[in-house]
Specification:
alpha+beta, Helix Hairpins, Heat Shock Protein 90, 3 domains, 6-stranded antiparallel sheet, 5-stranded mixed sheet
Length: 491
């Protein structure tokens, strides 16, 4: 059985904590060990310097040998160093151009004149200190020699103090260092374990909250909301899921409303046609009245055909099975033809038309038939809702950089500001939008999807008694064969 996300997260945090503490402990132990070794070696070096200070007021070893008190004090110091540090002291004197060695027992050692020794003594003679491993092979390879100058009158080197100490005595054992560090490391690990537990739980809690909400959504309950606070990205995720739930809830309401509206749009003409046809069959409608009622049936049939065509167009647009045929055409010509097509309805409502279109062609690269559908839908919508005494419809096309901007304005009924963001949505309730009570509202949704296929969008603004729809298309050069690709569609 798979472990829960909490235990996996907790395990990862513990592993990271353990690795971090192990690395930190190792680095700290190595650093501490090196520091202790350096400190111990500095302490040993200080002992050699103290012996050199004893000799500082002496010009030669012969004076020390004659002065019993001085020799006793010096030998006591050397023996103390040997007992405490297991280090042997040699006193080296440069008398009469020769090198004389005395060990810690104050016995003279025969002159050792190897090249390596001479080189190191010459360094000390310049006033510097030395540290050399295996300088005197007769003492062993694992002996470290520390040499400090013996000064007379603080500026004249008359000899050297050589301290010999086994290398192992300078080394600090790692175990002794770990004894100091491990208790703190264990305490840190214990504290980190507790903190990791609460951290893992705090991280998992919002994930559980989100998981529970999504599970409810999958069951169809869109009323559940995610309540996550102070979790950074998870809080943003929770807010996004809440917005998604709101959108889904509204979409579900719109879908139900859409189905109800479509059902009504289908049922009303079907009921009407069925009633008239039955009346004709049973003779209720006389032969002289049949042409008029057949006209009504034909109008209802056309209404159903338009509705079905809109639904099919929308379905194909959403599925991507509505390919575009891009070619340059004159946008001014397309707008003029649409005005001619709507001329009867324009005259019926006494609408004043302002066609702000240039005399020169204004070519765009698009699918002429689909753009004609967009323009026709927008003009139809505008005419439908202009019922005032001074109706005015304005069509404008103008160059805008590399694009052509098309604007269609009317002074009809305003669209409520709360409805503006939703008027292009397929499932928005028709009676809340600009098309309230006038069909299913598929026209604007189809227009928006056509423009999205062209890489553009329709925008709408409304207020102050004026409503404007606007979209842009890429400008194009005049077609090489006018009358073919450059011809606007017939309306």
């Amino acid at each position: 059985m798979k472990r829960s996300l909490f235990w996996r997260t907790y395990g990862v945090l513990l592993a990271a904590l353990l690795i971090t503490i192990a690395i930190f402990t190792g680095v700290l132990a190595a650093s501490r060990r090196q520091g202790l070794q350096d400190s111990y070696e500095a302490e040993v070096r200080m002992q050699a310097r103290e012996v050199a200070e004893y000799m500082a007021n002496l010009q030669s070893l012969s004076y020390v040998q004659r002065n019993t008190t001085m020799r006793y004090v010096l030998l006591s110091k050397i023996k103390e160093i040997y007992r405490k540090y297991n280090a042997d002291i040699w006193i080296v004197s440069y008398d009469s151009g020769t090198v004389q060695y005395l060990d810690s027992s104050w016995k003279t050692i025969e002159s050792i004149a190897t090249d390596a020794v001479k080189e190191q003594l010459s360094i000390i003679q310049t006033g510097q200190e030395i540290r050399k491993e295996g300088l005197f092979p007769e003492l062993g390879d694992q002996i470290v020699t520390i040499g400090v100058p013996w000064l007379y009158d603080e500026d004249y080197v008359v000899g050297a103090v050589l301290l010999h100490i086994p290398m192992k005595d300078l080394h600090i054992g790692i175990r002794s260092v770990l004894r100091q560090i491990l208790p703190m490391a264990a305490l840190s690990l214990a504290l980190g374990t507790v903190l990791a537990f609460f951290l893992a739980r705090s991280q998992i809690r919002p994930i559980k909250e989100i998981t529970g909400a999504v599970r409810e959504f999958s069951k169809g309950d869109l009323t559940r909301r995610v309540n996550v606070r102070g979790a950074g990205e998870l809080e943003e995720l929770g807010d996004s899921i809440n917005r998604m739930a709101e959108e889904l809830s509204r979409l579900e309401d719109s879908r139900r409303s859409f189905v109800a509206n479509v059902s009504h749009e289908l049922r009303s003409p079907l009921t009407c046609m069925r009633g008239y046809v039955q009346a004709m069959q049973d003779g209720t409608i006389g032969a002289e009245d049949m042409p008029r009622y057949l006209g009504i049936v034909m109008d209802e049939t056309n209404r159903l055909t338009d509705l079905v065509c809109d639904l099919l167009d929308l379905s194909r647009l959403e599925s991507g099975k509505f390919p575009l045929t891009l070619a340059p055409f004159d946008m001014n010509e397309l707008l003029r033809r649409n005005l001619i097509n709507f001329e009867p309805r324009i005259d019926e409502k006494h609408i004043e038309v302002a066609a702000e279109l240039g005399d020169a062609p204004l070519y765009v690269m698009a699918d002429a038939n689909r753009i004609n559908q967009v323009v026709s839908n927008i003009i139809d919508n505008a005419i439908k809702f202009m019922n005032g005494p001074a109706n005015r419809l304005t069509l404008r096309a103008e160059a805008a950089g590399k694009d052509v901007r098309v604007t269609i304005l009317n002074n009809g009924e305003d669209i409520a500001q709360k409805d503006l963001p939703y008027i292009f949505e397929r499932f928005y309730k028709a009676d809340k939008a600009h098309t309230a009570g006038q069909g299913t509202g598929l026209g604007l949704s189809i227009c928006q999807r056509i423009m999205k296929q062209h890489g553009s969008l329709i925008t709408c603004r409304s207020g102050g008694g004026e409503t404007a729809f606007e979209f842009t298309l890429p400008a194009a050069e005049a077609p090489s064969a006018p009358g073919s690709a450059g011809t606007a569609p017939e309306t």
